[in-house]
Write a structure and sequence with these properties.
The complex is a heterodimer of chains A (111) and B (117). Chain A has no helices and 11 strands. In chain A, strands 2, 4, 5, 9, 10 and 11 form a 6-stranded mixed sheet that branches. Chain A has a 5-stranded antiparallel sheet with strand order 1-3-8-7-6, with no helix packed on it. The N and C termini of chain A lie far apart (41 Å). By secondary structure, chain B is mostly beta strands. Chain B is built from no helices and 11 strands. The N and C termini of chain B lie far apart (36 Å). Classes of the chains: A mainly beta (111), B mainly beta (117). Chains A and B meet through β4, β5, β9 and β10 of A and β4, β5, β9 and β10 of B.
Chain lengths: 111, 117
């Protein structure tokens, strides 16, 4: 069964304290891996798409990387406005494109 | 490009009532997805449209749920005889044709929060 597991469930950081979020996946054939940010009461906001092992994408303080079994979202020198839930999702090859999500990591950054 | 919009943003209903939600995708996106998200969980896939054709339905979509996308534009999701277990955030997402730039990426709307009393 295709599955996505995110860890940790929650992460508390001080402003400026860099860290990484993990997304491990088990799928029959990966078409793409997606990272989204979700603020309370809102829909997920697209961050990155990764397609192949070794690929990296960056946006401001965020950097996403991909291996054959997992993806990491690295947060460098986070600010309080980075506080949100970060969702990882996979798209399986041969499917109609629906996303399979993990439960997310809730990030809190304290000033 | 105004993004995906959903209406209403919040809906409170009594058990047994019918409710209908609307989603307007990004213009020219031919693919549209519905998901459901409960507290502390990631979104779960419900159904998928390519243009006006409903091509996939999750087993989560019971007989009380029906979705349409007339003329391949906006979509509606109806829940009949609502139950308390239907309380959730209902999210709509759209994406462009596969093969185009960003064709795999889904862009989500703000969601409709349903509360069944």
């Amino acid at each position: 069964e295709d599955q996505v597991t995110q860890s940790p469930e929650a992460l508390r950081l001080q402003e400026g304290e860099s860290s990484s979020l993990n997304c491990s996946y088990t799928v029959s054939g990966l078409r793409g891996l997606f990272w989204y940010r979700q603020d309370p009461g809102k829909g997920p906001e697209f961050l990155f798409t990764l397609y192949s092992a070794g690929e990296e994408k960056e946006k401001e303080r965020l950097k996403a990387t991909l291996t054959k079994k997992e993806s990491f979202l690295h947060i460098t020198a986070p600010k309080p406005e980075d506080s949100a839930t970060y969702l990882c999702a996979v798209q399986v090859g041969g499917s109609q494109g629906n996303l399979i999500f993990g439960k997310g990591t809730k990030l809190s950054v304290k000033p | 490009d105004t993004g995906v919009s959903q209406d209403p943003r919040h809906k409170i209903t009594k058990r047994g009532q019918n409710v209908t939600f609307r989603c307007d995708p990004i213009s020219e996106h031919n693919r549209l997805y519905w998901y459901r998200q409960t507290l502390g969980q990631g979104p779960e896939f419900l159904t998928y449209f390519q243009n006006e054709a409903q091509l996939e339905k999750s087993r989560l979509l019971s007989d009380r749920f029906s979705a349409e996308r007339p003329k391949g534009s906006f979509s509606t999701l109806e829940i009949q005889r609502t139950e308390q277990g239907d309380s959730a955030m209902y999210l709509c997402a759209s994406s462009p044709k596969r093969g185009l730039a960003g064709g795999d990426t889904q862009y989500f709307g703000p969601g409709t929060r349903l509360t069944v009393l």
